[in-house]
Amino acid sequence: MRKIAVNLFILFHVVAISLWSLPLPNWVVGGFRDAIRPYMLWSGLFQSWNMFAPSPMALNGYVDAEVIFADGQTKSWAFPRMEQIGLFERTYRERYRKYVNEYLRFDKYSALWPDAARYIARANYRPSNPPIAVILYRYWSEIGPPRPDGAFAPGPWNRYRFFLYAVKPGDLP
Question: Which of 21, 30, 66, 105 could be stapled to 26 by a disulfide with Cβ–Cβ 3.0 to 4.6 Å?
Fold first, then answer.
């Protein structure tokens, strides 16, 4: 019975990931995708094709934070950025990139901001000098058209403060 359960688990995931990821017409797999959507989003197994088509994102972006402590000191904190870490680490930190670049930095996902700020406050907790606020900043640089040599000219970096969170006593250990 255990062997059957394991095989069904594997089969479900192979089918679910395949049907979710393949760019098939919606009428072919739409009902199945709707049924498994909550699980795929919860588990992080979802994939979107917006990286490739019809209009790939034309900007670089990232999010970082400024942590303000009780004594007035500040500290910068950043989510992992793929271009700053090694290949092996990128493999298991890819979800951070997806979370930050495809969700956290957009206003329509503002419900995520307090949780992100609480996480950052806990990650920077010191009993002798606890964090009292977290400020989230988004950065972006437009990717310009290719130069004659085929390389892309990066645009200037823009910075925008998009969220201020006052840390509550219950947020910290």
Answer: 30
Q: Encode pLDDT of 118-150 as tens digits.
A: 999 999 999 999 999 999 999 999 887 777 887
C-alpha 162/C-alpha 107 separation (Å) is: 8
CA distance 11 to 114: 37
> What's the predicted TM-score (pTM) here?
0.72
CA dihedral 47, 51, 56, 61 (to 10 degrees): 100
Rounded distance between C-alpha atoms, residue 66 and residue 105, angstroms: 15
Beta strand ranges found along 87-166 (DSSP E): 131-146, 152-154, 158-166
Where b means 16+ CB within 10 Å and e means fewer, 77-94 reads: bebbbeeeeeeeebeeee
Tell me which residue of 152, 136, 157, 148 sits closest to 64, measured CA to CA: 136
Q: Which amino acid is at 138?
A: R
Strand segments, DSSP code E, in 18-80 are 59-69, 74-78
